[in-house]
Description:
By secondary structure, the protein is α/β, with parallel strands linked by helices. The protein is built from 18 helices and 14 strands. Helices cover 41% and strands 13% of the residues. Strands 4-3-2-5-1-6-7-8 form an 8-stranded mixed beta sheet, with helices on both faces.
Amino acid sequence: MIKTYSDALNFLFASTSVYERDGIAAYKPGLTRINELSSVLNHPCDQYDIIHVAGTNGKGTVCHTLAAILQKSGLRTGLYTSPHLVDFSERIRVDGKTIEEDFVIDFVRTYGGFQSSAGNCSFFEFTTAMAFDYFRRMKVDVAVVETGLGGRLDSTNIVTPILSIITSISSDHTDILGTTLKEIATEKAGIIKTNVPVVVGNGISSPIRKVFIEVAEQKNAPIYIVEDMDLTKTTEKFYEQDRDRVKPNLWQFQPELRIHNILTIFMSLQTLKERYPSKFSDVRVRSIFDGFTNVTGITGLRGRWEEIELMERLMVVDIAHNIGAWNANRLLIEKLFEEARGRLHIVVGFCKDKKLSQIFSWLPATARYHFVAANAKRALPAKDVAVHARRYGRKGKIHGSVAAGILDAIDRTKPGDIILISGSAYIAGEALTLIDKLIADEELAERPPDITPNKYS
Length: 457
């Protein structure tokens, strides 16, 4: 009997196949199951506007930043992303607030026993339907929806969006999406819909560009390739609209997140304003500034180069789950090593299906390494992470858990030192859970005793 939020989640994790837990065995290609469940729900995703985002890296930060900007523009905004780091509710948000626990309980009670003609829904299919139904219940104006894997056969691909976005293409999930970048791009291009504009991010090679152009032409979808745009001209369009409202220096800001897709976000906003002027007329300089500079506060995003002070040490938690993400982080890690004056500890772990070639060659040779594995079936054993590291002369200590690695790093550092915790989303999730607890314990220890007289004394 499902009575509580915990009951609902336990039921979901126990009765469905979960990719985060089971890996490729949980992957159920095809849209039959999600379409049938959506039909039972009376197709909720058809009842509000959707921005659909795919890509190998950067789609999470693009989704959250767009949602933050749209929310600050006065639009009631839904946000669906995955995976969660600490709690399931992080996946589904409206105006930055996580899904209500009572809704999760009621939805699982009502539809938990749903049987499709193609078999049971996967965890991701079921939660996608839940998100779409929740957004309808909350009467959102627009929802920003992130794909799970690929695009063409992803559960989210039952939507007909007002805008499609593809952030980047690199080698990842090759056991599912294909072994070549062209094959992976073809899967991502599956989100391009007939007559729906698509924005393609920067760093796209010529062969991959050709894939997207060909699919867009077949679908008669207007395509905007970021590398072909002029950022100065694009930002000037927004500023011209607000010249009398804002100070010139407001436009010269430092994004809160190290976003490699700034051009993609600007091109997306410009496309929305030009194609749907009545709905997105209030996307202006002020809301763009607010969204870029306070995305974590507005949407609750965590684990993207998140800097946390703990015990007078700087903890940096960052999801870098594949080779593309680590490559993008190279300069940041070098800078972190310099700031640590060489006293940088790196707690690192990966999933089994990730290519680790070159990653350790990019990391500081004299940093102190802590090799860990998350509590997940997909996790690469810590000893195997250490083997990869030693090939490049990076040595360290093997730990039995993420928590053990972090606590040992804290013990071996002193105030002013820096600890980087990175790798899979599971590593980041377990790290944030532990750090939040340590901060709470630290605050409790520092809190003065309650000397309020007992009213009965």
